[in-house]
Design a protein that fits this description.
About 40% of the residues lie in helices and about 15% in strands. With about 290 residues, it is α/β, with parallel strands linked by helices. The protein has a single domain, classed as NAD(P)-binding Rossmann-like Domain (Rossmann fold). It has a 6-stranded parallel β-sheet, sandwiched between helices. α1 crosses α7, α4 runs parallel beside α5 and α6 crosses α10. The longest helix is centred in the last third of the chain and has 21 residues. The chain is globular and about 55 Å long. About 50% of the residues are buried. Bound molecules: NADP nicotinamide-adenine-dinucleotide phosphate. The site of NADP nicotinamide-adenine-dinucleotide phosphate (NAP) has 29 residues, from α1, α4 and β4.
Amino acid sequence: MKILITGGQGQLGQDVSKLLGHEHKVISCGSKELDISSQEAVDRVINRHHPQVLINCAAYTAVDTCEKEKELAWQVNARGPENLARGMEARDGRLIHISTDYVFDGNKPIPEGYTEEDAVAPLSQYGRSKLAGEQAVTEISSDHLILRTAWLYGWGGKNFLKTMLRLALADPSRELKVVNDQHGSLTWTATLARQIETVLTSDLQGIVHATAEGSSTWYQGACYFLDAMEIPHNLVPCSTSEYPTPAHRPANSILENRRLKQAGLSVFNSWQGDIDAFVRLYRKELLQEAKG
Ligand SMILES: NC(=O)c1ccc[n+]([C@@H]2O[C@H](COP(=O)([O-])OP(=O)(O)OC[C@H]3O[C@@H](n4cnc5c(N)ncnc54)[C@H](OP(=O)(O)O)[C@@H]3O)[C@@H](O)[C@H]2O)c1
């Protein structure tokens, strides 16, 4: 199968490109090769390669910066998927698009997970722009799958766990406040890549939730990861109000992978099991990178 991947240099894009490259003809484009906010650029690349499937891993993911850079966030997160949907629809291709837990307001009682049927109500520009992207894909593409995921980490790129590691290594005794009243599921991009491989040829359409099983707070997740890495630390739990950010974030970001499970297609394990596997595979490289 011929597959075009956009955002190929991002943390998910790297893992998806690597995994699918074993079995398929993959064309992986970074933002320099293909700017998804340009319809002309999108059409040019689609018409050159004629992919059967396009997987959109590109997004403007700096959640707090989106509050200031609203126009740019909307260009990438809303117009981008709209352009891709139009381009693939013209060629009768399938579009796999990645969205987010931040389309929800997080008011659901914890630890209840949001299902695909729950009402959306984003709290931030990032969430609103990603929701507009979902809506454009749904309206334009007659063959699409939108995977909503959350709290991603992986070997390639920047993420919360890597930041925690860098800070703890720099000074294990330094008190680091970490938010302990937002709940979600830390999800490994390598597992999400396997999930994308699984749904590639399925007849699933519409929106599916796709995150690791179980949930934690940011604080609990960071402690688990640093303990697995055997790194001493002095993390201290704090509340969202003690750590104010420009973008509001949902208190409950837990997603229930209901449709994937109903279809017998979910590949997800517990978030702890995936962190253990991530550490087993990359401990040495993670330490090297964090020490600079
Ligand atoms: N990270 C999370 O915790 C999280 C949570 C929920 C959902 N998601 C969703 O999961 C997907 C993958 O996220 P990720 O963590 O892999 O993000 P990431 O590491 O930030 O990668 C996103 C990629 O998109 C590229 N990009 C930005 N603007 C672009 C444009 N105009 N045209 C083409 N490419 C562009 C970036 O390239 P440059 O760096 O060159 O700009 C970057 O390589 C996204 O849809 C995101 O919204 C992520």
